[in-house]
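Standup notes
- DV: blocked on the single-chain target, sequence here:
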Amino acid sequence: MGCSGCRVRFNFGKVLSKVSVFFTMVLIFTYFFYCLTGFCDSAPRTLYSQQALDGDYDILDDRRRILGDLRPPARLLHDAPSQRNRTVSADAEQMDAPGQLPQRVSDSANKSAQSNGIPVSNTFGTKRFPQAIIIGVKKGGTRALLEFLRIHPDVRAVGAEPHFFDRFYDKGLEWYRNLMPRTLDGQITMEKTPSYFVTKEAPGRVCTMNCQTKLIVVVRDPVTRAVSDYTQTLSKNPGLPSFQSLALKNSSTGLIDTTWSAVRIGLYAKHLENWLQHFPLSHFLFVSGERLVSDPAGEMGRVQDFLGLKRVVSDKHFYFNQTKGFPCLKKPEGSSRPRCLGKSKGRPHPQIPSEVLQRLRDFYRPFNHRFYQMSGQDFGWD
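- DV (later): unblocked, structure below
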């Protein structure tokens, strides 16, 4: 009897063990079934959006896929003649190591990535030499053009003027590249330094970096430009001599003093001749400073076409500020007020004797006509 009871208890234990295993298998099967059919998406996931997973979930593949969707299509800058005197390849860029994610810097891309639950960093992207440079001219409207261009999601630009090719060339190209913002595939790196246009060594130095660089020159009536230049200097140095005493060698002869920088900068044809020794005319875009004020969207359309960009910047981005006398950018999303250039822009000009202005117009006329012929554009300054 005792042994029979032991045997029953032993069999009951085996049955109980099998039942436990059976129910465990049922629970496991049910769990996998629900996961495969998507019901496990209610479970929280760290850092990532809830997703239905088919098989193994590869974080890198998923991030590549989403970032790939965010990346604008790559566009190659057109006009690629032979690369003469080129000693630094435009392809000498910091490349992502194998297996690394593509680096990104676009603010809009960052926001979009964050909305997908992906952590992003401002260290994404690659520092490249600029593919396009605004090389001139001072007081022509270069700051306005750069600010208008920075609205475009495919343009990344240095805010301050680097002055690399005229003042800091001895610091080396690597120093220059490190000044650049990080960009993504399909984005254009830009900078603006207006004094490049009038610097004798600048064209050869830019070509040494990359002879395929696109060059934008914002030009303005040289007489108005000279007065604006003088006005800016006068605001910093109130003891400056009068405009006419600087512009004329002496008042009796009326000869123009071309050694004064405010006058010399306006000799656009002479400066362009220097640049054309290193770059073909097809690499230049000449932007009218007057039309940038009267029709900013129209001029920006030309600039975007020249850079191979989609026409994103348009009429809807501008309004005319009557106080300053030039267009401002409409209120950006999330901002409480519109964006206008600083107080240093749109200063009232001092009164200049009309006979001095006329002497300057007569002086510039042949240079203007020569510039019209060279650029293929009549800017109507005469």
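- Follow-up: The longest strand covers residues 214-219.
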